[in-house]
Amino acid sequence: MKFFQSLLVAPAVIGFITPLSANTTNLNLNDSSIYAQESNIPSFDSIYSSDWSFKAITDLATSRGCLGSIPNGNISRFEAASIINSCLSNVAQLSEIEERLIEEFNPELALIKSSVDEIETRMSEFEAGVFSPTTSASFSVDMAIGAVDGVTAEEKVGAVYGYQMDLTTSFTGEDSLDISLDAGSGGHLSELDLNATTGDALIVDGIAYTFPLGDKTTVFFGDSMDGSTLYSTACTYGGPTNALDDCGNYSSALAAGKGTTFGASYDVGNGFTAALGYEGQGSSSSGLMTLEGEDAYGGQIAYSSDKYGISLTYGLIEAGTADTTHTALNGYFTPEGNFPSISVGYEWSHDDSAASSADESTHYFVGLMFDEVGPGTFGAALGTKTPSVENVDDQLMYEAFYSYPINDGMTITPLVYVKEVTGGDNETALMVKSSFSF
User: Which of 10, 188, 264, 425 has its CA 20 to 30 A from that of 285?
Assistant: First the structure.
């Protein structure tokens, strides 16, 4: 037992003694076969210095080197059992008198062992991050410092942080209730994905319940989640910014933030999957699937393997009588050897509410990931920072970063990016992010 655990076990055992000694009539001690040395069933009365067991325990403490356990004055049977347990817990061979003591105090020793085992189990669960037999927690903290030339509010060097706690509970071993809590100092360095909030507020960033239906179907429902939660978009790139991290799947990924969400996925087999998603305003007076509210529907089919993958995603967003449709094609290829994986994405959209000269838009992305550049990972990408409306020049974004793991729980990521701005100076950013997970 670890020292920290021992500190907790000791008072627990002492606290265990008092109620038992005060309620001896409630215990059933009918097994007299173990008391070969005594004619009567032992009670919870005190053991006196004149009793044979008192002298035997004193000799035991002296011979086994646990001198701090030598009794001083009358002791209860549970105190005697505690001394025996501490002196003989790691002894391989017992003397005749030690065996006699164990037989004499066997019921009390059994109760102490049961109590200690339960405490050790709970301590192990606590150290493993388990609040109960079904709930676990994980934590992450992001801290960043940097500046963005070309953005007035971010030109001076600033520092921000984001904090996230994820709670996961399973009731059947196959389902999962997930809750994400976020806090942070948002506003500065807004392009970074830090899970930050406004004014250090603590919010519920998402809640979802996921469960299987049969062997191949998985279903989820929740709030403040993406409708694409169960999608398998074909992309291996994972950058630290918001604009290019979607891999070109800007709108069809159903990250519309409507509130109520649910979806399902089906494992077709041989690497193929199919998924559906929905987002609606169920937490507002507009309601779900009404003309007054906004609703988003989507679906995806995908194939993935170790070397390559491809996915086709469709999204429909209804806002009153005007619909917007989005279709995205994504793919990745991971060659063997010291070559980077490449991910590409292209999305095209149609907006019924826009004029005919501006109702079409496109969005594209290309990203490279070098998984083994020294001890860390290097990534670089380019793409349109937002969907480009027809007849308007594309505004591109370029980024490069290097994630260096300091240890299992800490990663340092320097980042540089450039955003093109039509009719103005480009935005150029330089920042460093430190990420902690525990």
Answer: 264
CA distance 320 to 34: 82
Task: Count structural domains, the chain.
Answer: 2
- Distance from C-alpha of 307 to C-alpha of 271, rounded to nearest angstrom: 12
Predicted pLDDT at 126? 59
Is pLDDT at 426 greater than 50 in this prediction?
Answer: yes
Q: Would residue 11 be called left, alpha or beta, if left means φ above 0 and alpha means ψ between -120 and 50 degrees?
A: alpha
Co-location of 77 and 189 in the same domain: no
Asked if 207 and 100 sit in the same domain, the reply is no
- 12-46 pLDDT, tens digit each: 333 433 333 333 333 333 333 333 333 333 444 67
CB 322 within 8 A of CB 353: yes
Shared domain for 33 and 167, answered yes or no, is no
What's the domain range around 305?
Answer: 135-437
pLDDT grade, residue 368 (50/70/90)?
A: very high
Q: What is the pLDDT of residue 94?
A: 82
Q: What is the pTM of this model?
A: 0.68
Of 163-172, 285-294, 312-321, 362-371, least confident by mean pLDDT is: 285-294
Tell me which of 70, 93, 126 is where a domain ends: 126
Angle 96-104/77-88 helices, nearest 10 degrees? Answer: 140
What pLDDT sits at residue 288? 85
Counting Cβ atoms within 10 Å, is residue 225 exposed (0-12), middle (13-18) or buried (19+)? buried
Q: What is the mean pLDDT of residues 137-144?
A: 91
Same domain, 122 and 262: no
In a shared domain, residues 298 and 430: yes
DSSP assignment letter at 153: G
In angstroms, rounded to a whole number, what is the distance separating the alpha carbons of residues 26 and 45? 15
**Can you say whether the dihedral through the CA atoms of 223, 227, 230, 235 is positive or negative?**
negative
| H helical segments located in 48-105 | 52-63, 77-88, 96-104
Triad 140, 277, 241: Cα angle to 5°: 40
